Amino acid sequence: MDYLTTRGLVLRTTEYKETDRILTVLSADHGLLTMKARGVRSNRSKLKGACQLLTYAEFTVGEAHGFSSITEATAIEMFPELRTDIVLLSLASYFAQLAEVLSQEDAASPALLPLILNALYALAKLKKPPQLVKAATELRLAGYLPELSGCCVCGDPEPDRFSIADGTLECASCRASDGVRMPLSAASLAAMRYIVSCPDKKLFSFALTGAAEKELCDAAESYLLTQLERSFYTLDFYKSLLTE
Questions:
Q1: Which residues, listed in sequence order, are joined to residue 183 by a DSSP beta bridge?
Q2: Nearest to 123, CA basis, from 88, 94, 76
Q3: Strands, E, within the chain: which ranges?
Q4: Whether the predicted pLDDT of 216 surpasses 90
Q5: What are the residues whose beta carbons fall under 8 Å from the beta carbon of 48, sequence distance 6 or more?
Q6: Are 86 and 241 within 8 A, CB to CB?
Q7: Quick one: angle between helices 130-141 and 112-124, nearest 10?
Q8: What mean pLDDT is predicted for residues 116-129?
Q9: Rounded alpha-carbon distances, angstroms, from residue 183 to 20, 42, 73, 136, 161
Q10: Across all residues in the chain, what is the average pLDDT?
């Protein structure tokens, strides 16, 4: 039997048979991995702690007959703060679903895993505003970063519209396409520029409130969903909690 040791974040768990569980794990070196945790739902299982949703752990995996089974697992970070807050847990689950959609099996994803882990850390440990963590993560996860240097038509450095389909800026009086454009104030534009250009470790070190915050959040979500051309049930559930 061949063995693989890797660190990864549990993005999804599926109960299997009486005591087993199938894990979908995002690793930096190997991309998306599907692994079986035998007997993990038993009270005596030593794998239980490390094989929970949204746990970052080190896994030793045995490969036999084309199937991967976990032989050892040690939790590195379990983000307990997320498990006691349904709103934070639902937002973290949205991030996990995004990561699964954007990753591939046997394809290294060196930037994706740190981004998701940093987002979870910002929510759980730093207590950053969830809506701003969400917006920053969505902009970084989009298929390509938007072009925010200035109006794509006239070059004005402070335009006030964001083209969702193209990821470009326009002035209200300029139009490069017939797609949806969203309003941006100077503050929300400055926040977007910060998000797409700052170092990874500084991604959530910004503040925004009021109307500018809503502009940023609306633009980031719309841009990502437009680029991916799909919806997410985890996002729908998160938003339903905010309206209750």
A1: 161
A2: 88
A3: 2-16, 20-27, 31-37, 56-64, 67-77, 147-151, 161-163, 168-170, 181-183
A4: yes
A5: 40, 41, 42
A6: yes
A7: 180
A8: 97
A9: 50, 53, 48, 18, 5
A10: 93
**What is the pTM assigned to this prediction?**
0.94
Residue 55 CA to residue 179 CA, distance in Å, equals 40
Distance CA 158, CA 225 (A): 25
Which residue is it, tokens 């239980």? 48
Q: Name the residue type at position 74.
A: T
User: What pLDDT is recorded for position 176?
Assistant: 87
Residues 242 and 244: their CA atoms lie apart, in Å, by 6
Phi-psi region of 177 (alpha: psi -120 to 50; beta: other; left: phi over 0): beta
Specify burial of residue 50 (Cβ count, 10 A radius: 0-12, 13-18, 19+). buried
Smallest CA-to-CA distance from 93 within 9, 13, 204, 11 is with: 11
- Residues for the chain: how many in total? 244
pLDDT for 142: 79
